[in-house]
Amino acid sequence: xxxxxxxxxxxxxxxxxxxxxxxxxxxxxxxxxxxxxxxxxxxxxxxxxxxxxxxxxxxxxxxxxxxxxxxxxxxxxxxxxxxxxxxxxxxxxxxxxxxxxxxxxxxxxxxxxxxxxxxxxxxxxxxxxxxxxx
Length: 134
Description:
Blueprint: E1 9-12, E2 31-36, E3 52-58, E4 68-69, E5 78-79, E6 92-103, E7 106-110, E8 119-125, H1 128-131
Antiparallel strand pairs: 1-2, 1-8, 2-7, 3-6, 3-8, 4-5, 6-7
């Protein structure tokens, strides 16, 4: 089976290396920008009405070989599918972000833990009725 992904944009972030990024975006108030490529600008129609978005991005500097990781605050190694480790077979990042500003093809957001230059693979509206289990 072949899967093909096309980035829809890129991240402009204050985090230049994995050691600089927060473990979870919600632990930081730093602002980032998502620069959506021109060919996807129509997909942004209505996004200014959203307070929160789900950003899926490619963690291009993460290891794809690791199948086990030790979660923060723990001592036992576990399979990466039971963790939020960036190192995994398909390093897809998932982050709920707060929308601060929308200008043309640029979204200014907070809570994004992606590294500078990370490819954005999708953006979706966050819905508390659907996306929150409590």
